[in-house]
Amino acid sequence: MSFLNDFILLLKARYPIIYISTYEEERVEYIIRYCVKKYVSRTFYSWDFIDGYQGNPNDTGFALKNPLEALELVEKLTSETASIFILKDYDNFLKDLSIIRKLKNLSKTLKTQPKNIVIVSSEVNIPDTLREYITLIEFPLPSYNEILDELNRLMTSLQQEISDDILFNIAMACQGLSLERIRRVLSKVIAQYGEISVASPTVILEEKKQIIQQTQLLEFCTADKKIEDLGGLDNFKSWVKLRSEAFSQAALDYGLPYPKGLLLVGVQGTGKSIAAKIIANEWNLPLLRLDFGRLFASLVGQSESRVRKMIDVAEALSPCVLWVDEIDKAFAGAQGSGDSGTTSRVLATFITWLSEKTSPVFVVSTANNIEAIPPEIIRKGRFDEVFFLGLPNKEERNSIFSVHLNKYRPGKIEIFQVSLLSDLSTDFSGAEIEQVVIESMRLGFNQKREFTTEDIIYSIQSLVPLAKTKSKELKILQEWSESGNVANASKYR
To answer: Are 94 and 125 in contact (CB under 8 A)?
Structure first.
């Protein structure tokens, strides 16, 4: 059910006090006025602390800087006068004893009268003493169609025409922004480029970065890795390329559902983090990173509603890639009992969302310890695919050495014996291969010469790979990968 239908139902059912949480005061007031005019015949009153009541000539300025008096107007009007009272930022006064008592008394009388009090605030601050008397409803951000209508109005006023593809990309980029923010950012686009253009989504993305920074729950990451930056893992690369247009208008028109996500499991240094950045880059989507450790740290003394807020932000900024780093550590924490079950409830909320979400949020979760992850999160339905990222074999080590040597010495790879280096680096991860290349560069730099194959060999011999220090964990992962319930990211397995 839409917000408008919910709101009309509450009015007709004579719910006395309705609470709407939103930053869009202007938009919610416009919708309520529209509702009052078209569906329920009522007199409209709007109050704020600075200006008192506005909009009705007989009561202009009434209850100025007096929140208790603002409620007295509700009683002042006759019981037959159908009316609706918008009280802005009124949550700031809900802890006052006189306000609490007044609202309780009014809630009894308004059940028999065609009057409703609507509290509009940017935050939900309902004291326990009033929870039974106040009904909270969500006010959604502008839908795709609302954004499209706003863009079309702007195009008409600018006397500008743009292609349907560009219009679709701009509308998708604007999802997650309030109507006011959309208007501001489009004004910025016009000021910068003189028109609405193909460059608009880039400017809109910068606006979204500010929203992410304000949440303190998510981190906006730069998706600066290309598929060519990852050596090996050909099966994973093919999977990503096959879905490169999954969030396009053409895919929607074809009837394709949005992909849900991936779970990437493997030892440290096998490219899981790079893989998340590659997906965002290849699909041209913003990359958001969720650190469960930061989320749980912020939960001290708070409810698990914070994870719901995180989900709302991610969905609001969709289409996007949500990167959940080291999710296994979060589940390992859930096995403890020191937080009265808060961690378990948070994770249960997250898992339920993974299964039920329909929004274009592609979740990439990474994990090192498969034993810490409950079986229910691995089963089909949570993720589209579960990939195992094992240690690279010789062919993949060849590729990884080539990637890093070309990165640091472009066009000079022929001076290095890549095949020999691959033979000598058995059990090395991709990250460890990069590290030995960097260490060999330091050797050459300190001796004021170019680094050589011999320097890399020396670095290989000096490094003890993680596969040897954590052989037990690696064996568990290898046995799990052979169970048949997981796909190998490499085609060489």
So the answer is: yes
